[in-house]
Structure formats: structure tokens, C-alpha cells
Amino acid sequence: MSRNCIKCGTILCGRSDQIFCTPSCRYKYYHSSHLVLILKKQWFDMILSGVKTEEYREIKPYWKKRFQNYFGQYYDCSINPPSIVWSNQKKSVIFRNGYHSDARQFTAECTREEWGAECGKQYYILSMHRIFDVRND
């Protein structure tokens, strides 16, 4: 069974766990214009069925950097005291069920909300407004 690079579609030969044809394709995929989040099957199916409408990520340096780069922040001087606030425009986020080259995926229109969820813990919350472009389902 032949497999293809998930970025450019080139036929892969070599290791069975390989999903990119070159390091360049891997870099372009993870630094593309979309934010790609990997989900376990349970959460993927719940979001796709409409039961789960939010995705949570712990506040850690890794997620902070990715969300800042993708959703953006700006310095608001109109509030007292002036502070950094998140841009709240809708962005397309790709959700994948695993790392396999033909893994199921969908794209959702999301906004980044204020953190909350479990009492005493802080999370980033992505609110999903619309799901489209379902693949390999």
C-alpha cells in the first residue's frame, strides 16, 4: 500500500511511519496559514457530531506562542490600565484525528475565548462556530 506526503502528495517510500517526503514539507505543513490541532478519536467524533463546541488547551509556553502567532494580540491603550488583548476575529483551524497521512480531518471556524473551564485551572478555549471541509470520514 503506497502512502502520500500529507503536504504535497508525493508518494512515500521508506519507513512505514513516515508522513512527509522531506523536512521542508514538514516545516511548510506546520508553518502553514492554518493552525493544525491533533485530537484523539473520542474528542474528534464529539466535535464533528456537534456535542462538543469548544476545544481546550492548557496555558503553557508552547500553546501561548502558537495562539499568539495565529490569532494575534495587540496593545489596547483605551482601557485603564493599558494592556495586551487578543484579536477576536474568526480563523480557520484544522482538526486532525491523529498523525497518519490519511487521518480524518475537518476545518472549523474558531475564535479564541477567555480562559476558564475547570475551577482553579486556566485554559485557552477555542469556540467553534462552523465546521466545514470534512475529509476521510
Topology:
Elements: E1 3-4, E2 11-12, H1 23-30, E3 35-38, H2 41-49, E4 54-58, H3 61-71, E5 73-76, E6 83-86, E7 91-96, E8 105-113, E9 123-135
Parallel strand pairs: 3-7
Antiparallel strand pairs: 1-2, 4-9, 5-6, 7-8, 8-9
Protein name: ASCH domain-containing protein
Organism: Anaerostipes hominis
Protein architecture, described:
With 137 residues, the protein is an alpha+beta fold. It folds into 2 domains: 1-32, no CATH class; 33-135, no CATH class. Helices cover 20% and strands 36% of the residues. The protein has 3 helices and 9 strands, in the order E-E-H-E-H-E-H-E-E-E-E-E. The chain has helices spanning 23-30, 41-49, 61-71, and strands spanning 3-4, 11-12, 35-38, 54-58, 73-76, 83-86, 91-96, 105-113, 123-135. Strands 3-7-8-9-4 form a 5-stranded mixed β-sheet, with helices on one face. A two-stranded antiparallel sheet has the order 1-2. Strands 5-6 form a two-stranded antiparallel ribbon. The protein is globular. The two termini are 19 Å apart. The mean pLDDT is 80. It comes from Anaerostipes hominis. This is ASCH domain-containing protein.
Q: Uncertain regions: pLDDT < 50 for 5+ in a row?
A: none
Termini separation (Å)? 19 Å
Name the helicity range.
10-25%
Structural class: alpha+beta
Whole-number count of domains: 2
What radius of gyration results from the CA coordinates? Answer: 17 Å
Q: Quick check: average pLDDT?
A: 80
Summarize this, please?
By secondary structure, this protein is an alpha+beta fold. Helix content is 20%, strand content 36%.
